[in-house]
Amino acid sequence: MDAKEYVNKVLADVENRNKDEPEFNNAVKEVLTTLIPVVEKHPEYIKAGLLERIVEPERQFIFRVPWVGDDGQVYVNRGFRVQMNGALGPYKGGNRFHPSVNVDIVKFLGFEQTFKNALTGLPMGGGKGGADFDPKGKSENEIMRFCQSYVTELYKYIGPDVDVPAGDIGVGAREIGYMYGMYRKIKGVSEQGVFTGKGLSYGGSVGRTEATGYGIIYFLNEMIKDKGETLEGKRVIISGSGNVATYAIKKAQSFGAKVITCSDSNGYILDEDGIDINAVIQIKEVERKRIKEYLKIRPNAKYFEGKKVWEVPADIALPCATQGEINIDDAKALVSGGLKYLAEGANMPCSLDAIDYLMKNEVYFGPAKAVNAGGVSCSGLEMTQNSMRLSWTAEEVDEKLKGIMVNIYKTVKETAKNYGNEGNLVVGANIAGFLKVAEAMMAQGVI
Ligand code: NDP
Ligand code: 2IT
Q1: What's the whole-model pTM score?
Q2: Which of 53, 173, 259, 418 is the most exposed place for a label (fewest CB within 10 A)?
Q3: Which residues of the chain have pLDDT under 50?
């Protein structure tokens, strides 16, 4: 069997064995189709069944999460944790609370996470978890009770050297605090390294809240520098108004870019004077309301209900909300609007045909597993600080984060070139991440 036949056979098997998992199939397809030249160089991977092993989670858990609402009613949600690949270190990856969470979503995220974590150069395997719980409209006490119930089961599967969860959609420092508190109570030990994204007073790292958004802009800045340009004065459209979008907006503005949009799942804001980041933080982080409220603070801005930001002409697009938010029609609108750069802040925001269309139309494209690796990188730095029982300063953390993002860009770009695909950062990220995991797996035998 040659490399192409092997990859196609594994892809067909994955599709056959995971029929109800479109997102997982998409993620696997995006990675595996770029690995044919790697398998050509390493035919030993075929006999070792390396790809068959890498697409199969090492372990996955599904569990009941019952909790009591403020109305006295008992509600039941479903919790998940997928331990995808531990070859490089403890399983590591976020927790997502959103009604759409299911095995498919958690597996695709765990798969992506494995290669993303490899790219950071830090010793972390890949994992992901979450629940189909909707935090919207829940009281503070309901959120706490839910997090406590979730951890009452999850604690069995995690630990500082086992599996280290963090935040993702619907999970931030507040939820991590409740989860860590319950874990500490159940275990009766202080194992701060079991979660990342903690508050600063109990082992959190300075800079973790901002790290994903800042990291996106550090990566984007390298892309732009490479084309002989700067961020100064560029028109940037960003989707989302959560953790990732907020700090991407903030850092892009500090580089002189003009960010004119943000959004939530109901609609988007267009502010031609530049998004007021303090207004976004006030509405989304402090008051936890809908982005529409932005108009109350900035009456000259516009709100478009039920629409996506991609219809606004711009130089740079940064999808920072969720998977599948840019389809082929959105990609066409972006290209018509004169787009030059797209960097994926969210995980798998672009469909495969959208990526293809953007690249064919000269958009310089940054893939999620490289672009948004700043969050998990800072999580890795938090784990290190917890192990050493000390805290670094904001300057130290930011310098390390910047160094990691610049290094990821270099590695991804060089890898693409070495494999005959200069300028294709999708190929570069997939191959560079994969090679690291593959080497560790080969060394560790058939497990
Ligand atoms: P948040 O929960 O803080 O914010 C999510 C944002 O995306 C909100 O504005 C939300 O709007 C919007 N959104 C969520 N689901 C949908 C949907 N189905 N359709 C439209 N909009 C939606 O999450 P984060 O900012 O942490 O995460 C955003 C993305 O970045 C995700 O893909 C996540 O996996 C990825 N990511 C996160 C990292 C982190 O450190 N947090 C690290 C790397 C990647 P609404 O309020 O209406 O739901
Ligand atoms: O998708 C991601 O990289 C995250 N949600 C962050 C994971 C982490 O462990 O910090």
Answers
A1: 0.98
A2: 418
A3: none
